[in-house]
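[scheduler] slot 2 assigned
[scheduler] job type: sequence-to-structure, two independent chains
[scheduler] chain ordering preserved from manifest
[runner] begin chain α
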Amino acid sequence: MAAARSRYTPFALGVVLAGLLPLALPASSWALDWRNCPELRAAECATLRVPLDRSAALPGRVPLKLVRLDARAAKPTLVYLSGGPGGAGIEEMLAVLPLVPTVAERYRVVGFDQRGTGGSGLLRCPALERDARLRSVSAGAACARRLGAARTHYTTPDSVEDLEAIRRELGVERLTLFGISYGTELALAYARAHPDRVDRLILDSVVDPDDRDPFGLAGFRAMGPSLAGLCPRRCRSVSADPAADVATLAARLRRKAARGVAYDRRGRRHSRSVGPTALADLLYDSDYNPPLRAALPAAVRAALRGDPAPLVRLVAEGDGLAELPAPESFSSARYATVCEETPLPWELSTPLGERLGEARRRAAELGPEAFAPFDLETAAADEIGLCLRWPDVPSGRVPAPGAEASYPAVPTLILQGGEDLRTPPEGSARVAADIAGSERVVVPGVGHAVVGGDPSGCGQRALRRFLAGRAAGGDCPRVGTGVPAAALPPVSLRRVAPLRGLRGRVGRTAAAVGITIDDLAFSLSPVFLAYSGGGLRGGSFAVRRGQVVVKRFAAIRGVRVTGVARRGRLRLRIGGRAAAHGHVTLRSGGRLSGRLGGRRVSVRLPGFGAAGLAQATAAGSGGAPASVAAAVSGGGSPGAFRAAFARKSSHPRLVPSPAR
């Protein structure tokens, strides 16, 4: 599938390795030399050396690192296939299996690092490893030169035959294949090449091998429905057409990028420029955190009105998701070799300097609506840019549509996130139609990698039923985002109406306190994957031991709040050049009392978050941060919200995505 964003599927290991249940490992008759893994408990490792080039034109061998978790002969064998390409398969497998323990209960599980990744002859391209988005033309060309002629042998067909070599060495007749993201493409390619060697297929976030679109247009087509489906309260009072708003903003940003400031958890300023590619990046980044996408329509509307701050804040969060893991966990060089097999919008004979022009010509034939809500320049940012100066591509290794063999009619489960732009629903629908008797389960509200990204557990339950030989069941209910539906703060205090019963600056400041608390509730929502961060227009917040601490937190320019929320009360000091200064206390129910500008005030704030934050801390300092989340979630699925906060507590950046 060309021009699609990286399909590497990251999972945080955390305490996963220590949490693996001890598995019995009796002596095995398998031919490989299995030994205890020094770094893994309850597992055995082996190395299988395979030819670099099976045609023998190039010398050399690749050591494939394998891990098995159980060798009991009574169980069928399942091989886990990781995403990317480029992800270290063993690391990913050990992170995924605890999420679906039924897999290890029913199968003897084998994982391996695909050639060029992890412990299997890791490929390195230093310049590309510094390019978080994996789209640098010069770094791509340098990587091709560094890899040399060997670059043509780190492709899906090579990994298919590696997998077949593993099957033979294991001494088993058939394999069950469990793949996520790019792992599904490898599983499907193996099933076509060796149909009589496949017992079952488990495919999560399916890459359609027959998609020959070099521009990755399916992801663009999925943007509008996803934005509309995720937007809080169906975008009422926000936008009648969020995709059209994105298109309008993208066109405006093409003429002149927006500039703004994002604040980190220490309250430090970071100037940022946002163009149309950054906007598209944000949409794809949110495959790993759909609540981030749910917040986008309101931020886009604010940017169209001249306030880029909400959008800049979201872009900064998305960039955090795009941070690359260490090369041992993800090989940028192996990812780059997709250039050897992905469809590209030029011919092999096209000179390097004319490739982009040819891509533009072909895009023009499709018409601008094909790239809506963006354009060719945005579509070209990924594999087209990465491969623009990669030698001798397209290589012709990708068969023409219809030339592939059919898929075997084996029991197949397909899991699909309804909001997935990397591997959109239309692709898995085509694959499901091509596999006789397959079952497809869609989880609306979930993005890429259902097994690790569905907080409702519906997809995992479907997998358990499938493994038990029962019907997987139909599509899942929509998973809520837990994103508050509160309006975004205005830029200045002048645009804030005074609270009823109060006048002038005091009345506006009291109302601004409520708006600021609403924005704090938004900052604590699943939109952001950390318990601490910066304010919209300055300052910082943090959740510590059941308390919410804010320091000069600003949602409205010139109004800053500092204080602590605990034991059902928020005690705040109000400052800033525009505000009526003073001290106030916010209690359960949203009652605000104290002094502002030398005047005594006692009013009830109408905002969404004020009462929730006070209630969340009513349990005292022992209250868990999740209780804060529950109180300020403002609807949606409680399960989704709890899961997102559980992820926060384990790691501030759980889901690093190497590219969009």
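[runner] end chain α
[runner] begin chain β
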Amino acid sequence: MTSTSAPLQSNLRSDISRLIQSLKEYILVGGACPIERIRDFEKMFNVSLPKDYQEFLSLYGAISGNQFSIFGFGNEKTGILLSDLILLLRLQYITFSLNFVPIEDLGQGEMACLDCSETGSKSSAVYRVPISKNIGFENTEIISSSFWDYLHTRLTKLKREIEQIETGLAILEQRVKEFQSASNYNHAEGGKLPRNHVWRPYRFCVQDVLLGATVVQHVKGDNFLNVDVFMTEEVPPYEPDSGVKGLTLFLLCEAYKCGGTMEIRFTENVEGGRIPRKIQELAERLQLPIPEKSLSDRRLTPRDSRTLFAALTPFSPEAFARISELNLSIERACYVVQKGIWSLQEAETILLSAVNPDRLFSGGAPTEQRLLYGQDILYGRTTILGGYLDRALSSPQHDLIDSNLEVEDDERSLDIHWLPSASAKIYKCAPAPSETSDHLQIPWTVQGSTVPSQFAFGQQFAVIVRARDGVDICQSIKRDIQLAYELGQKLNQPVFILLPYDFYDPDIFEDKVRLEIIAIANKNGIGLLVCPETSLSLDTQVQLRFNSSRIIRE
């Protein structure tokens, strides 16, 4: 194995000692470990620790900090003991090499490990080891030539990150003061919202947890988004990359909203003007590394931004194909999803069913164009009606008296495919983590229906979405039932028809007429579902979505 010369190791140890001293407010040190404890560990696990790692254990025991932990022998504050960790890995992963000693959890299912196969070695290379695969040397890569090199790199990186955070916080505070002085705006009382060309501070929060903060402005002359602060951190128990994904998506949405070219640049206050390291790492994990030219030019080009936007917006292959086929604006489709104007499934419904999806994403046709306007309203109404059913199906039912238990992130997994020829959705549903039932109850079934509405999870069923008003329902329902019957014969699976609450309008449907329609549906084996929303309330929702879309760019 590659070793480091004695003078260089001595310098590294001195630098490491100074780094640890300068970071004492941000890290915990386990304390000196007796040599007897080290020998007992080697005997218990039949390994020979490299001399440099032994020296670390003797001096520091273990080190723990923010998103940073070097395993060893410390206390409950510095994390899991090395002996407990090795025992756990050897029991859980039978292919874990007996020569590997883990020194840090790298996340994403990988560990930094020392190779302890050479007895009495002065140092060992540090390997990146994927613990979820067959753990042999063929699946590893060397990431440092020695333990001291690795520790020095990690501490230097931590110190640089802390300095960047402190600089970012100071600039953020300055920009917030400038913003409040110029606009006199606060969330409680409101005030004048700033124009895009001035510096605007934003924070990214989930409830009371701050996941990131940024300051941006649109540069008019060169037409790009300028970023003065970009700070984000991993916050357990939120899933990995939550902060950097949220903040990156915000920048991409702002670049589109401001009417620019989608180019994004960073000031000297953000890692010296470079594209932030966390954005680079996120792109690499998405298997779309930022091109070298963009890194050297210190900017995200419009092409880079669009690629990243598309990768972070999980459209189905069919939706992406439709975007390509119609030559649609990919950034507009991504924006309406990421800003919550349309949900992902709603946006896919529009993409796969509407004649002109881009017009709906842009706010629909003007009222003066009556035929196009009416068409867009109907597409929007159908989309929102289907979205209500998506949310009802994704919400688990719990056996509590007169109540549904709502648990954050406790949702059923829905696999949805849109069938444009029938304006139908094909559903397959998996239970939520908290559910104990083996069956899915279809919501909103009309009273008097004899069609089964309870299925095993995983069974497919189809729902024809008919967002008609009362008069149209009365005129078309029998034809829709016949279409649903033919679709059921073709797909060989249960079929339902989803209607607005207009089906219960007494001014249009007398009880006798309504019962007759239910009887026809029963005879054909078609279930009728009636959403609690009327066509009028759906139209109001469509108008709100269209209005939100129209004002997105200055």
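[runner] end chain β
[qc] chain β: The radius of gyration is 30 Å.
[scheduler] slot 2 released
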